[in-house]
Here is the input.
Amino acid sequence: MSWVNAGLQGMLLGGQYALIACGLSLAFGVMRIVNLAHGDLAVCGAYLGLVLSSVLGVPVWVTLPLLLPAAFAVGMGLQVVLFGRALRHGVLAPVLVTFGLSVMIENLLQVAATSDPRGLNGGALTLASFRITGGITVSWLFLTGFLTACAVLSCLQLLLSRTSWGRNVRATADDLDTARLVGIRVRPVFASVAGIAVATAALAGVFIGTIGTFDPQAGTNTLIFAFEAVVIGGIGSLWGTLVGGVALGITQVVVGEVNQAYAVLAVHLLFLAVLTVRPGGLFTSHQSAAQVRGVRGQGVLG
Amino acid sequence: MSAPLLEVADLDVYYGDFQALFAVSMSVLRGGATALVGANGAGKTTLLRTIAGAQPAASGGVRYDGSDITAAPPHRRIARGIALVPEGRKLFPSLTVEENIQVGAAAAASDAWPLDRIYGAFPMIARRRRQRAFTLSGGEQQAVAIARALASGPSLLLLDEISLGLAPLVVGELYETLAGLRSAGATLVIVEQDLRRAMDTCDHLVCLLEGRVALSAPVSGVSRDEVVAAYFGEGRS
Here is the structure.
């Protein structure tokens, strides 16, 4: 029974990884930017939640209507001021810029908040749980986190597939040059995608901070897990990201059941194995498959 | 009718250090059809992309419908009524046929071409509206590319090598559609490798040679031999 329990807990944990990873996946799919500060932005979300919930004296969930729009605005601002400019200067510039941002955020948090580990006030949800059968108890907090991840991914999928905004995002992801040419205003598309990426990261940060603790350096580890979830699932596939996150979570908890010391190592080995056997990820999306086939070929001189 | 719809004057365009266009000038009358011919690398695609706003002009200007649009971004030009059907079709592979067409209406100049009118003009793609664009045949994909441009309700349609890689029968059908568009009032600029088809379809001809205008004349006043001479640069020192 403990194995079933471990699998279930791992799946719920994997939802967290998917929630943090979906913004990374979206930003890469649309803007071709690997945001190395993504994990740190999630940690910033946790700190912002900490400040808001202690100032207002409420559980962190109540602050989400303030926190998420603020994170969305920060994402749009970063895209307009930093990432958009960096993207115009080749492939290396965004890597350097986001790495620099990551270092800056970690050090500023260190100065402002010290390196003491913190936790968020999750209210009654933090300790509540329910029992399915004798050996299996599910934490409401973990379940809420998993269901939130599924809801966020579903909403994103619906927005992308059913709205004119989503159509423009997918067209831009397919072919930036042609998207401009047919009249899509690419800058607002990029800004909104970056806003969503940072807002989902902040939401994930709130769950990370409620389930466990966080400190100014937590972003790096968060980024690695998110990155592995994206690669395992296949870049550009949102549901693949969920599967990738769940695979990481189950591996971590099931191996941890045997020996806690090897839990995180096993996660990285799984990532390495998938990368070796299926470099494109388990669920390679249509657009990346099309890119592999060279549909994006260009002929500018006529 | 007297003022041209599009005027290109002394246009210089560069790709980095490489100059693709040298002082290119041409004008297109409202309701007219201009054939743009020339060898590979002569600058035809560059000229169309500069008119559409995808390529910046280093010097010179583009005037459209009485105002200077040299610095306007593509979406502003589309909103004014300029639409480009790019070389190689450039459909969005992960979008369906209908979504590809809808994307074309993102910055539409007018709603003169709603979906049902487009499907009426291109019955072969109406059946495939829910399919992903890359699953279609070459001719169908080209029809979708033209439909995507039409969705913006253009007054000036720029068509870049729409017959590339297509069977003659399919090309014939596409050109029949173009003739229909023209009689409905559209102004066309067509890049076409098939000289006879270009001269049959258009009333004005511009031949580019190594980034310069080698010949610009009404089709009725120019012989095929003169065009061929301009095409290959014969008779020049």
